[in-house]
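The records we work with from here on pair a chain with its fold. These numbers are not coordinates but entries in a learned vocabulary of local backbone shapes. To see the layout at work, look at the sequence and tokens printed below.

. . .
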Amino acid sequence: MQKKKAIFFLWIAFVAGCTNPNTESKGITESKAPEANIPVQVPAGTQLLLDYLNETGDYVNSREFPSLIKASIVHEELAANNLIIDIRKLEEFKKGHIKGAVQVDFTNILEYFQTKIKPFEYDKIILVCPTGQYASYTTSLLRLMGYGNVYAMRWGMSAWSRDVANDNWLKGLSPAYENQLEITENPKPKTGKFPEIAVAENSDALMQSRIQALFSAGLENTTISAEQVFKNPSAYFIINFERKDKYDGGHIPGAVRYKPAGTLGIPNEMTTIPAGKEVVVYCGTGHNSGFVTAYLNLFGYNARTLDFGNNSFMYGKMQKEKETLSWVTFSASDIGNYEVVE
């Protein structure tokens, strides 16, 4: 009898020892854990890109990501050894730009870096656009190429000039869809495949061709408005790139949260993003998502960043929750209204 009791208690101990005490609180079952650890097959071209980026410092998982700089710092350092590149259209540039800035079209940026300047002769190279989102996208591509002194100016020229802000950020703020948010957590899809990309002779050649293709494609299809997304959210795979408490407080219907510093460059995470569907990435301001969008497009995804981020559809809610959730919202106080030259 005692032998049977001993066997029974040993069995109880075995079961208790194999049970994850956090399973119930996280709302998952043990059967899901092994699935997340199944290694995915990484195509040869994708592996070349991953190897290249790892060898150059894994920028997207470093402390430098995302590389943003405030307009006030740019203003303070106007006499420093910095280069300011304005990627706005020439007619916008001529209406008023930062003293000393040069205008370069987005499609010509890579050529400019490789043939017109010696990038590392500058302490900082600062990219400027109307809102900061295009500059974020561009900076991400250049940082991935290894240009480690490139920054995007936060809020773009809207933080420098009231006139630019009136036509851009101040127009983009809206609470229009904050009553259509959901709080249900949407699970990530099962792991799938990376998008197909052509293989080059080596990682350097592949990186150059991929980056060049993205610059040649222009900026037209790199952003999307809240109106377009809320009109038919199911048409997109929507990525919320925010802290969990912000996601839980309300997100775009169908949006799936992907963890900052725990997604990019990780095959098991990236392959849960459907390769054949248009991807929309959003965050609070559209700056971080601009950096993420560039990375995903490098790997062959069809990704776009949401114009003005959460500010474009739940601005009122963000203002109310600014202290509790540390929301970053644009306002008139963010406009330095510094001098521009024509």
